[in-house]
Every structure is written in C-alpha cells, then in structure tokens.
Amino acid sequence: MNRPTHAKAAAPAIELRDVSKEYKDVRALDGVSLSLAGNRIYGLLGRNGAGKTTLMSVLTGQGFHSSGEVAVLGGNPYENDRVLSRICFIRESQKYPEDFTPLQAFRAAALFFEHWNADYALQLAKEFQLPLKRRIKKLSRGQLSAVGVVIGLASRAEVTFFDEPYLGLDAVARQIFYDRLLEDFAAHPRTIILSSHLIDEVANLLEHVILIDRGRIVLDDDAESIRGSAVTVAGAASKVEPFVAGRTVLHRETLGSLASVTVEAVLTDAERRQAADLGLEIAPVSLQQLVVRKTLAAAEEDSATAAATVMEVSR
Amino acid sequence: MNRVINVARMQLINKWIFLGIPAIIMAGAFLVTLAIWAMIPDTGAAKYAGSGQAVMWYFMALGIQSLTLTFPFSQAMSVSRRTFYLGTVGLFAVVALAISVLYYGLGLIETATGGWGMNGQMYALGWIAAEAGIVQILFYFISMVTLFMIGFWFATVYKRWQATGMLVASIGTAAALLGLVALIMWQGWGPQVGQWFAAQTPLTVAGWAALFCTVLAAGSYLTLRRATP
Amino acid sequence: MIDESRPIFLQIAERIENDIVEATLAEEAQVPSTNEFAAFYRINPATAAKGVNRLVEDGILYKRRGIGMFVAAGARDRLRARRREEFARQYVQPLVQEARKLGIGIKQLTDMIESTYTATQDTTEGSVAQ
User: Fold this and answer.
1) How many structural domains comprise chain B?
2) CA A84 to CA B77: how far, in whole Å?
C-alpha cells in the first residue's frame, strides 16, 4: 500500500487533548488525549456505553465536549464546513427524513460529499440486497445498517467513521462489508475509524487499536504490537508464580495446584527455553482476549481505587 | 454558499413536503370552498371563507417537520448547523414568497371575476385587499414566515431539551400571554388596547410580525447551535 | 487461516517463505501485491505490506519499480539453509523433551524416526520433484 506523502500527511488527521464530556452524573469522556495519523484503519473498541459514540460525535461536531481541545484535519470540526465537508459519520441510530428511501438518502449524500461515487453506492446497495425504493423507516435493522455502510463507503470522505456498522447484518453481509472496506481502502487510502465491540471479527482489518473504557483510553497502539504483547503462562502454581514475578499481571486463574497467569510480556528465546525446562506452557493471547483482559483489569483497578477512597473516608 | 443551496435541494428531494402538500391544500381548500358557496343560495351579500389561509397553518407544521426530521440527517451529511439553518429558512422564504405572490394574483382574479362569479371572498379579504399590491404580498409573506418560525422554534426547543423544554416553553408562553392580559385588565388599559388594535393596518401588523419573527429567528438559531442530532 | 495471537505480518512473511521453500513460488516469479494479499487473507493492507517489506529487507524478495515484487535469485537456498539451522531448536528439541517425559529411550526414538522417514519418503520426494 502506498501512503500519500504530501505535506498535509505530516499533521495528524485527528488530535484530542484532554477532552472530557460530562452528562448530568456521568463522565462520558474522561481526559481523552489521542493523536491519529491519517490514512489508516483504526479500531475504536470498547464495551457498549464505553464512550465510543460520544467520542465520534465530538470528533464530528455533532456532539459537544465539556473541556479540552479537538482538531480534525487541522481544525475544530464544530460548525466548521471546511472540515465537516471532508468527514462522514453515520450513527448506529441514524435518523432519516420521513418517507426517505435509500435512493433519496444517496441523492442527498451526493450533494454533500465531494468524493461521493454514485455508481459505487448502487453497486454496494445491490450487494447488500438493499431495496432502494422502500421507505427507510420500513427497513429491517440490518438493512438500516446497510444504508449507513453504503453512505460511509461511497462518501469516500477523508475521515470516515463507522459506528457499530454490523448491527443486524447477517454473516454474509458483514463479510461483504469487511471485504469492500479493505478493497476500497486499498484503492483510496483514507482515515477510517471503525467502532466495534465485536473485536474478533474486525481485528485483522485494523492497523491501530484504541480501546476505550468508561470514557478513558485504556489502550492506544498498533494492532501488530498488541498481538504477541501478552502471554498466558500455565503450569504448576509453584513454578508459574516465580516465572511471572515482576510482570504486569492481567489475569490469574488457579485450579488446585495449577495456575494460569496472563502477563504483559514479550518473551525472549531464553525465557521461552527456561519456561519449557520448567515444564510451563506458554500460550499466546489474541487481540480479543487481550482487550477483554485490559478492560477488566482497568475496571478492577478502578474499583480498588474506589474501595480505597471509601476506606479513607470512613476512617 | 454552495452547501446552503444544497441544503435547500436536500429539503426538496422529497418534493411532497415543501411543494406537493401545500399545492394540494391550496387546491383542495379552493375547490371545497367553491363547492360550499355553490350550495349556499345567493342573497346578494358577500360570502366569506378563511379557507384560503389554510396553507399558512401547514407552514407551522412544516417548520416542525423540517427540523425534527431533517436536522439529524443533515448532521450525518456533515452539514454545519449554520448551513442547515440558512438553507432551510432560505428555502422556506422562497416558497412563502411564491405563495404570497400567488395569493395576491388569486385575489386579483377573485375581484375581477366578481368573487368567482359567486360574490365570494377567499383571497381578497376586504381589510387587506384595499392595500397596495406590494403591501399585500408583504403581509402574506411575513405571516407565513412567522408561522414557520414558531413551528421551527418550538422544534429546536424540543430537539435540545426534549419534552421538558417543550413544556416549559409552552407554559412560559401561556403564562406570559395571560400575565399580559391580566396586566391590561388590572390597569384598565382595555379601551386603549382596543383602540390600538383597531388602528393597526396590514402594514403595521406586518411590521410587528416581522419584529416578532426576527426575535424567533435569532432564538431558533442560537438554540440550534447547541442542539445535538 | 490467520492466527490471531501472533503478529500477522510475521505470518504473511512465513507463508511467502514457505511457498518459496516448497517451490510453489519460483525464483524470479512475481509475488502477489500487498493489496492482493490483504484482500485474500482479509487483513489490513499496511500489515500485509509490513510482511512483504520484511522479506525485501531480507533480500528474499526484490522490488521492480512500477511492476511489483519478485523472488530473488538464490532465495530458496538461503531460506533452506536458515531453516536447517533452526531445525534442531524448533523441532528436535521439543521432540526429545517430550520423549524424555514419556520415557522413550534414544534407541527407540531413532527407530521411530527412521521408520517414519522411510514410510513418507515417496510422497515427500514426489512433491520436491514437482
């Protein structure tokens, strides 16, 4: 893949500095700082309600943040037509004008996205078997998602957000989406932000992973560095524990005298040999597992801090 | 500027909302009124009908619709709130102007044909028809824009603060009106107020409406700027 | 096809190496483009590119500007030599370890290897001759 190396590429496509967003009693975003270089496929991962949609809303000027700074394509997106015209964000719960058909929605999109490709939109709609002349409000959940996916892909916007785009799509349609995304991205490199809680399905598509949990960034790294950044060491507890001592433990399970401990570590060959000599089994950790472990570990840390605070107060 | 025009084009993708339904209301009201007049025996007195104004009320509903249904979509189309506002209100102003001119034209025909041959008054209502053409058009235009802005403003309030906002806005408006009436009664200003109303001409009414409309327009815009889809 | 728990670019590089060692990809033959790899394995194009570039840096593949990637002359021999070096550590060591665990003696082990080697010789040689 060729990354365009014009002057603009030096500036990050998206930059957030200490961005927070408070609703009445929740912090939907909590001191988020990110810097995303352009022309990559980013995964915005996290549980439901972790803050993915809030973050994307702020990045597209559709929502508001309480504090911090946001820059997309070099400018604040809020009420900024110069920036907005190069962004596309169809929400998971996107509303369409009453009585609009998919075809009419595409015609509207053609008015606003300068790189819009109408033929491509129709070709995609055909692949998703989207009834073009049925009213959108009468479409199934999957077809509704497909309308958003088609607009997102055919907009060819410099920064395109996909908000849980697979909801209601069957396995075939999801595969079509992933294939078309990769294919079109290869032909027209741009910045894609794919929000998802189905990590296994999208993991291979991603170049970079951002994990958000309760409004905080828990992980922000290249997918390839994450793969293989943790291992599970299993065997006799008496041998596992000294081996993992001093490493960051993400998860620990014990069964009688056996232990299985997931640690953040890239083992050297010497360490692997040592483990083998000790009769320990080393198992790699998938991106999905790592994300689950990281999320849970962050939650645990939080409740531990909270518990400590409570104890402080009650003392 | 281009994007503002494109917002208007987007609002027109579904031609029914801005063009089809108003046309049907106007044609329907006209035909029904004629039919009713035809059934009333001619006594020599003029027959009045308010049905010609029916389409004006539709514009209040239109103000609500164009915001609640199209605003969230316009956000997905990467349109700024300002652009959406200008495009939508601008399109409406053009449609309202066209209908105003049409009203004036129909009023002329009405007068020329002796009230559609039935001595009826639907468009050229006495109080307004006596004014100069330009004043008539201005009056119709501002009336429609005002109704549209009322609907649009209520919709922005709803969009931003949901049902609570609507409730507060409705109760607030009602309370303000009641308070005003109470004040007039309490102060014994009734006769003066009556005289004041009697002294109004279409032109001054249009002036007051324009003022009110400007306040609503500014209020809607400021509310919309902080609304989320 | 792709093992989710190891860096994918390494797996892509290994697959290409395998194809070269097995002579599925002949020397001087053109290698699929990174986008073709990405589409085929359903992986990010940048990841595929990283795998291919690793082989370029290694001198296993070379770039022809504007045309594509090709297998370098002598790549197969170099890969085979490298794999032979790793053979003991990658295959023999765990084999011996497991044999010890099970109480299989050295004589018994070499017998097993010998008989397996002879039994599969025909098929292996067949594929090499291709």
Assistant:
1) 1
2) 9
Place of tokens 């008539």: B136
* Third-level CATH fold of A226-314: Alpha-Beta Plaits (3.30.70)
- What is A9-225's CATH number? 3.40.50.300
Tell me if residue A217 falls in helix, strand or coil.
strand
pTM above 0.95, yes or no: no
Mean pLDDT of successive 10-residue segments in chain B (229 residues)? 91 86 88 84 75 79 81 95 94 91 89 83 76 86 88 85 80 88 82 80 83 89 88
Helices (H), chain C: 8-21, 34-41, 45-57, 75-87, 93-102, 106-129
CATH number, residue C17? 1.10.10.10
Which of B69, B81, B228 shows the shortest C-beta gap to A79? B81
Give the pLDDT confidence score for residue A258 in this predicted structure: 93
Find chain C residues with C-beta within 8 A of A186's C-beta: 35, 38-39, 45
Give the C-alpha separation, A165 to A152, whole Å. 10
State how far the Cα of B228 lies from the Cα of C55, in Å rounded to an integer: 50
Is B229 domain-assigned?
no
List the subunits that have 3+ CB pairs under 8 angstroms with A. Answer: B, C
User: What digits encode the pLDDT tens for the residues A238-254?
Assistant: 999 999 999 989 899 99
Q: Determine the residue of chain C that is closest to A175 in CA distance.
A: C42
Q: What confidence tier does C101 reach under pLDDT thresholds 50, 70, 90?
A: confident
